Fold:
Amino acid sequence: MTDGWALRAPCRGQDGFTPNEDDWTNGDDLKRLCGPQLPTCGPCPFRAVCIATVKPAQAKFDGIAGGRLWCNGEVIGALDDVVEEELAEPKLRASCGTEAGAKDHTRHCERPCPSCRQAVREMAARRNTEKAKEPKQLQLDFTTT
Structure:
């Protein structure tokens, strides 16, 4: 995963999201091995993109993806705040995860994917910070009375 969103995801560089095949035999083993990592997905804005990238149901995935614990492509555990919308594979574009990506979604009459929505929020926050740093200009009135 070298996509821009994967470099900003809370799970970046962490182990324990996918078990070694020799370490488990059933769903209870997966819950024991991977379950403690599941809360890492809680604040992640990229859960839907993660699911679209990993394609856990199609790939018969075992481990954590998108705020859910998967066993053979079936959800066996999930965070309380997951929504079905995250399971739908969004249309991913090369520009996803950027402000331009969000504009691409809008141009194609699509709802922006979570990573594009997050990119727009981050860009707006940066603009607001920069705007707050700009010196205030005084407006002088030189009209005579």
About this structure: The chain has two domains: 21-87, 90-127. The chain has a mean pLDDT of 84.
